[in-house]
């Protein structure tokens, strides 16, 4: 056995202690969830379908048989439905009464239910986050109460009829905040937004502790932007359960970038991640007088605007998400084909057309894309 001088033994002891400290420092506080082997949330946002059905729209499966769109979608792999809710839309659709009614149809089929709170009377997205008219004069203190009470009311009303939501989004594509201008992030100050998000989270958990709270942005195109936002709310102590991103290849770039951002937010925040919105056109043509929001024969390289191109793009998004460890992918408005009277503007649905008619997975006579699949 070797004999070492006392000072050398001390140096060895110090070295061992420093090494141990370094190893401890590299143990993550929030261990990264294991990569998902399957997509457990295979979703479709079909928020416009009630209006379409009320106007007489018919839907057909790949065999040409008329059926309920929910049944057609479940037949091609959908197991989760996302429904947006507006506070008091002029159209009378996507409000509390309509969401409660359609939630019963969703849950009757054993499907998961996500409620997408816009906290507005109309569309909320990265370019606009209008307060509901009833809250227009409210400051941040009252808005916290508004968000809590409204979220709790919708959630408990759903729960009371046996359709408790499995998940809720507190805001929609809130890249720079919600309920502008009070809840807008200005000069990197997340204080007001964090108060609103906490109010929504607390209301949801008071309604049902098992309902998952989702925070959703459209930052799939930028790792820097995603980190800026989610770092910002985390620093303010905002709790959430699932991180969600929108991804449309024509606006958010390559699948490689999507993979990078999904992987990063999953590991950085230690929470499951989903793609809450995606879609792709099946044609470059336009079904009505309203200009399509996406045009061209191949808006993204390698994917023509055809039935096969649409299906291939959706499969590629699902594969990318799955390989990045995501647990879900949702197609946005697959049932919103061109039906006169179901226009974009909730204040003028009869007078506006559908800018999404070439992005649905059903053609203009209601037939589903025979190639489309939601894969585990």
Automatic annotation (TrEMBL):
Catalysed reactions, as listed in the record: The enzyme specifically hydrolyzes (1->4)-beta-D-galactosidic linkages in type I arabinogalactans
Keyword Hydrolase attached: yes
EC number(s) recorded for this UniProt protein: 3.2.1.89
Alphabetized UniProt keyword annotations: Glycosidase, Hydrolase
Gene3D superfamilies assigned: Glycosidases
Enzymatic class: hydrolase
Gene Ontology biological process: pectin catabolic process
Pfam families, per database record: Glyco_hydro_53 (PF07745)
TM spans (from-to): none
GO molecular function, one term: glucosidase activity
Family: Belongs to the glycosyl hydrolase 53 family.
Record-given protein name: Arabinogalactan endo-beta-1,4-galactanase
Source organism of the structure: Nonomuraea polychroma
Lineage: Bacteria, Bacillati, Actinomycetota, Actinomycetes, Streptosporangiales
């Amino acid at each position: 056995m070797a004999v070492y001088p006392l000072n050398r033994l001390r140096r060895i002891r110090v070295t061992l202690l420093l090494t141990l400290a370094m190893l401890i420092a590299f143990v993550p506080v929030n261990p990264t969830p294991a990569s998902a082997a399957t997509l457990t949330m295979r979703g479709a946002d079909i928020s416009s379908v009630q209006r379409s059905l009320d106007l007489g729209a018919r839907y057909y499966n790949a065999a040409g048989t008329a059926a309920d769109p929910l049944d057609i979608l479940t037949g091609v792999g959908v197991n989760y439905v996302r429904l947006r809710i507006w506070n008091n839309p002029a159209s009378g659709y996507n409000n509390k009464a309509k969401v409660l009614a359609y939630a019963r149809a969703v849950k009757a089929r054993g499907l998961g239910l996500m409620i997408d709170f816009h906290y507005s009377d109309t569309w909320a997205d990265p370019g606009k986050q209008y307060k509901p008219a009833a809250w227009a004069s409210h400051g941040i203190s009252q808005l916290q109460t508004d968000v809590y009470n409204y979220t709790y009311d919708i959630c408990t009303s759903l729960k009371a009829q046996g359709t408790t939501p499995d998940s809720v989004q507190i805001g929609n594509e809130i890249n720079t905040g919600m309920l502008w201008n009070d809840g807008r992030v200005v000069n990197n100050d997340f204080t007001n937004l964090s108060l609103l998000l906490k109010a929504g989270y607390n209301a949801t958990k008071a309604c049902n502790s098992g309902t998952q709270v989702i925070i959703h942005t459209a930052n799939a195109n930028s790792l820097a932007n995603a980190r800026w936002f989610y770092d910002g709310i985390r620093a303010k102590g905002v709790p959430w359960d699932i991180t969600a991103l929108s991804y449309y290849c024509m606006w958010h770039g390559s699948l490689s970038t999507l993979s990078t951002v999904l992987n990063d937010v999953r590991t950085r925040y230690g929470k499951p991640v989903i793609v809450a919105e995606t879609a792709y056109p099946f044609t470059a043509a336009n079904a009505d007088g309203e200009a399509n929001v996406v045009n061209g024969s191949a808006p993204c390289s390698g994917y023509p605007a055809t039935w096969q191109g649409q299906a291939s793009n959706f499969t590629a998004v699902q594969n990318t998400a799955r390989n990045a460890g995501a647990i879900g992918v949702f197609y946005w408005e697959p049932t919103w084909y061109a039906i006169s009277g179901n226009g974009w503007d909730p204040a003028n649905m009869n007078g506006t057309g559908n800018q999404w008619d070439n992005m649905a997975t059903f053609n203009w006579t209601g037939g589903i894309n025979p190639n489309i699949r939601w894969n585990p």
